[in-house]
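Hey L., structure's done. Input below.
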Amino acid sequence: MPVTQDEQRQAALQSLRERGAKPTFCVVGAGHGGLAMAGHLGIMGFPVRLYNRTEENLHAVRWHGGVKVTGEVQGFGTVQLATSAMAEAISGADVLMVVVPATAHRFVAEQMAPCLRTGQIVVLNPGRTGGALEFRQVLNSKDNKESVILAETSTFLYASRALSRFEARIFRIKNSVRLATLPAYWIPEVLPILNQAFPQFAAGDSVLSTGMENIGAIFHPALTLMNAGWIETTKGDFDYYIGGISPSVARVLERLDAERVAVARSMGVHTVSAREWLYLTYDSPGRDLYEAIQNTGSYRGIRAPQNILHRYVTEDVPMSLVPLASIGKMLGVAVPMMDMVIGMANVMHGRDYWKEGRTVAHMGIEGMTVKQIRQMAVGIE
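Output:
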């Protein structure tokens, strides 16, 4: 009998476990998050490769031989290879950590499709909402036959900033970050491999739960747009979270968060509120969202964007709010606050984020019932 794709994946993972050596990581993206992750992996002694599509952004890493990390993690992480050639970057890598804005997921999938090999683990850090679903759609459209394993996290592991082209500061590593594979039954196989480097990764139920636990959808777009005057006047010269979230702004965010929780509930997915998430992630107590934000020490010192044409809007509206709202509308959930924020972004940026964004059609779930969506996520054909 011919070997199935699942059997091919299983054999590749078994070979990786039996090899005994640390897995080789390829970090895809050399921005704020990618530099931090590549440097941290190198400091921990893992073989690291770094890909970035803009060649000039890699010159400093290549010159210095790695990434200097300060903050919660300190040291110099060696990077074995820094390249703008995708095939070269991922060849021989066991785990591909995609650390780019979610708006680039489609591009990365297109570039990876002809280069992937059976058994490689591709992790979107994070998937935002529907990331793994869209990534798989792109691979399928490119007639990719390799048996890779797709995964996504619910949020990014670090609060970090790039200080230069080869330096990153890690303000805080989150206590716990949910991770799920597509389909979900690969989670027990993949998690032990990733936990060698990142013990903070914990099992999510499925990519539906990681996609619904998208706190960036709540903390980024509305906060940026509601502070547009202050941002444009001061060029972002204030603490984004601590200064930007007043009691009134926090009440808006709480209403927006309630809609996210309602969309999750419509799919039978349990997710925590933003206030609860702050406690679980940063040990931040609070009777309401405003108080919890003020008690999040890791947010102190994180400055606001210098303008509103920032990924907090250009990424989190089309790749977080649009998919959440699109799912809600398909399942009959009212999302007036999401509609309002998306509308504000459209006006301020002169764009149509509904047209650009990750809708149910892009995720491959248009017209599906909740039962069909859940079965697809867990792997029931």
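Residues 247-266 form the longest helix (20 residues). The chain is about 45% helix and 15% strand.

-- N.
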